Amino acid sequence: MNSIKIHKKQPTFLELLNTISGWRDTENIFLFNCNVMASPVQLVLLNVETMHYLQVMWSLRSDLNENQRDFIMCSIASWVQSVYESKDGISSSLAVHIFTVNISKLLSQVARTYEASADLPEEAISEWNEFFSQTVYNLLLHIYVQLAESLMSSDVSRSQEHLLAWMGEAVTCCPKDQLMSLQLESTGAESSPTCQIETILHHFCPMLLSRVYCIQIAAYHILNKIINDLHSLESSKVSTVSLTEDICVKKLENLNTVDSEPNLAAEATAAKYPHFEDDDENGRQPNEILMETLMKSWKGIETHLDPSESIDKQFAPSHCTLGYLLTWKLQLHFLRTASSELRADYLRYLETLNLITVLLEDIFSLIPETLVSAYQCRKDELSIANIAFKKKLSCTSAPSSDKLLQNVACLMFEEALETIPATVRQWWRKQDRAFASFIDNFTKLFISPVLCNKEIQNILSLDMNLENIVIRARSTSREIVAVYTMDDVSIEMVIALPDNYPLGSISVRSEQRKGISNSISKKWLLQLNLFLQHQNGNIMDGLRLWKRNIDKKFEGVEECTICCCVVHGTNFQLPKIQCKICRKKFHSICLYKWFNESQNSSCPLCRTLF
């Protein structure tokens, strides 16, 4: 029924709702808090039609009074309790199946409204968050986890898939607070403050690799809610897993054979000064359970492929490839929400295993070249990407497998460019001319307008000024202006984003300066340019890093004479390694690079052997 007809008959619908809510006390027709399998089919169907009616009424939620809203909320809670009491027949009983699907539809509609806080009074939102959602999801998630785990590796029937899809749509609306308080069966022997996060990971990470599409999507959305909390889990751990103990598949080994001529100077330096390389090159392993899932997902793909090839859509089952991409989406979200220092550590670990290179190659093996030519003539830049591939991953609507994987791959590249732009830029510059040109055109067409607009809007809409720096944006020219002031010193810097941002080089120029020499001004601009080009983050992250570098300089901290910076642009460390003769300090990663390239282990300034 369309919304125009509903609003024309609004008074009638509201009066009917009052009548139905009155039956709760006078008629024994509602299947509340009971076993549905023991009820007549006609009564089950009457309750299902009532659920349909309440879905219609919820579209008029702004016109509902408190009693009418309470009736809908209490009905949902009681019907979910009935599903829980009927869980033994959820796969075998058609009546329970239909009942569960329709209460899941009603619940997902109501929960999404509360999630968006749309057209609802604060008291109703508070009541939902504090009482109803806790009651409902504590029951429904237990049923869903049990059902999904039992069917995860099976070929399910269409009716089972329909049931899982709508239950998945409902459980993905579970508020994060309720998810964190859910009492799922623990898979570990010990209890700890972070035990709940690990329990959720242990239950839902394997679901990413399910053969059933809707189970994979529901698992992704649920895990995505807790990704931010993984950092508190990781901070309590020290990564002890050796790189040699990782599941390195054949493709990763093949990548390591490129440029395999031994660098004797590098080997000698590494042997003599192992602490330089260990500290700065190996990095830190991201969350162990996520990493294990990532490697398992690649293993699932690799068994169907020649190890020298990228993902081949004709041979790798779509659920294997989708699980691999979804796990990487979570991994990128994990990196994006990490601090700059931790993100650098995690990236070094992933790059040591060549996992980033593998991911980027696999992404473009799923993106057809015709996608660029199909949209290249359009002028409405910001809408192109939305038309081409911006689709929300929904449990209840699955496109064809090829289209689905193409959409997810395109989204993955956008997220990679947003999260680790410097790493992607370095990879792009190593590609052959034809492939690099395709990547460049794809980025200009689909990604750059979105990310440039996001950078500009972040600065225009948020109070993101740093201490001593005032920032403003020029949206039409894709420029960001930062004015740094310290006592009587000031400099205005203009950051211009290229049309293929963030692949292309960002230009930085100074329009005004006061109290500083031309040489210092040029040095500061060069440092800002280096930070913007080589750090994996957004423009604000680069400005923060540059400001920290300048502040340390004013505090009297000596800069590393190799890179001419106080704070290193990739690992954010201060100079620590000191020459015993000239007393100058260097970044360990800069010194290691110096030893490599000069093929000796002397101080860059006084030439004394370390």
Quick structural summary:
Keywords: Acyltransferase, Cytoplasm, Metal-binding, Repeat, Transferase, Ubl conjugation pathway, Zinc, Zinc-finger. The protein has 26 helices and 6 strands.
Fold blueprint:
Elements: H1 3-8, H2 10-26, H3 41-58, H4 66-85, H5 94-116, H6 122-151, H7 158-171, H8 176-181, H9 195-204, H10 213-226, H11 230-235, H12 250-255, H13 264-272, H14 274-281, H15 288-302, H16 318-336, H17 340-352, H18 355-365, H19 370-375, H20 381-388, H21 401-419, H22 421-429, H23 433-461, E1 469-474, E2 479-486, E3 489-496, E4 507-514, H24 518-534, H25 539-554, E5 577-578, E6 585-586, H26 588-598
Antiparallel strand pairs: 1-2, 2-3, 3-4, 5-6
InterPro entries: LTN1/Rkr1, LTN1_E3_ligase_6th, LTN1_HEAT_5th, LTN1_UBC, RING-CH-C4HC3_LTN1, Znf_RING, Znf_RING-CH, Znf_RING/FYVE/PHD
Subcellular location: Cytoplasm, Cytosol
Function: E3 ubiquitin-protein ligase. Component of the ribosome quality control complex (RQC), a ribosome-associated complex that mediates ubiquitination and extraction of incompletely synthesized nascent chains for proteasomal degradation.
Description:
The chain is mainly α. Among the domains are: 3-170, no CATH class; 235-419, no CATH class. Helix content is 59%, strand content 6%. The protein is built from 26 helices and 6 strands. The protein has helices at residues 3-8, 10-26, 41-58, 66-85, 94-116, 122-151, 158-171, 176-181, 195-204, 213-226, 230-235, 250-255, 264-272, 274-281, 288-302, 318-336, 340-352, 355-365, 370-375, 381-388, 401-419, 421-429, 433-461, 518-534, 539-554, 588-598, and strands at 469-474, 479-486, 489-496, 507-514, 577-578, 585-586. Strands 1-2-3-4 form a 4-stranded antiparallel beta sheet. A hairpin with a 6-residue loop joins β5 (577-578) and β6 (585-586). α4 packs parallel to α6. The longest helix is centred in the first third of the chain and has 30 residues, at 122-151. It is elongated. It starts with a helix and ends in a 12-residue tail after the last helix.
